[in-house]
Each structure stands twice: as structure tokens, then as C-alpha cells.
Fold this sequence. Notes:
Layout: H1 3-30, H2 36-45, E1 47-55, E2 66-76, E3 82-91, E4 94-105, E5 110-117, H3 127-130, E6 132-136, E7 141-149, E8 152-161, E9 167-176, E10 182-193
Antiparallel strand pairs: 1-2, 1-10, 2-3, 3-4, 4-5, 6-7, 7-8, 8-9, 9-10
Amino acid sequence: MNWRSSRNLAGLYPMALIVGWVTAQAQSQALPQAPAEIRSLEKALVGRWSTSYDFVPGIMSPNVKGTGSGEELWRTSPGGFVLMEEEQLHAPFGEMFVFAIHWWDKSTNSLRGMLCNNSGPAACNVDTYFNSTLKWDGKQLTIDMQFPEHGKKMLWHEVWSDITATSFTQTGDVGEVGGALKRAVTIHGTKVSGNAPDSAE
């Protein structure tokens, strides 16, 4: 390569940088953005939370009573389109693990979700998607999930409320569909860290 060709190539470098910058800007602008509703929920709950549990004796089952402690980890998928919850609970009646996913369904204009846990043989049960209703009003997350029990159609009603930057209150009520619900558990969450590992910005 002679000096002239080297000089000509050198003259192309600024142009290459400009083209690269414009391309990067165009690509970043073209990336889809997660719906505002799921981003609002993520802003409220993403992080690591220490949790304390107070179980009302005999409501969920004869063996479920007393107090417990645990952790909830809320994080997002790349792009922030899916909000994931991982929960671990230590209680007198045993140890529980929960994994849940939440997303905004544009076709129904509603929040949807699915639950996995170690409390029964179903584990990740697709019925939790079809039998649940989720609502987020910007301040309170409500999940209603129907399930069968001893030939009856039951309802689990769970609410995250009083959500602040450092704390939340979570309650779980249960009862027969159409009937009165009874408080089964009250959970208090305290923020341990603001950013969950691997969460999208």
C-alpha cells in the first residue's frame, strides 16, 4: 500500500465513524420497548426483598400455621418484556419455592401470568395461566387464581399493597368461589437491594 492510498483510506475513517454512529442510533431507536404497564410494575417491584410471613392457623391447611421468613427476588427479562418473581420461604411446616412470570398481553390489553411451585405434583401448571386474573393499577398488584380442592372450586386472592421504595405488604385470602374469603397469610417485604441480578435497565 503506497502513501497515497493510505491517505485516502485515512480520509474514510471519519466517515466510517459517522456511518457507524448513525446506524447504531437507528438500531437503538428501532428496538421495541416494553409496554408502559409492565414497566410501571417493574419499577415498583424489581429488586431483592426480605420477607416475613404470618400464617393464620388452619386456613390453608391444618399444618399451615405460625410464622416464617424468606426472600422475594423480582427481575426482568432482556428488554423488560417479562417480569419474573422467585420466592423462597422457610416456615415451620416446610420450605417452599415459587417461580412466577408476568407479562403484558396486547391482544387482551391485560396483565397475564403463570406460576410454578413445589407445593404439589403439578409444579409448573399451565392451568395457572388460564385460571388466573392479574391487575395492576399503578399502586396495587392483585392476583386472583381459581383452583379445585376436594370437589370445590376455590379462589386464591393475593394483593401487593402499600408499595414504597423500601417496603410492601402482601396478603393472601382464600375461599370458595362466590363465597366469603378468609385471610390466610400476611407478608411484609423489606427492600434489601434495588437492582436484581441480570435485570434489564
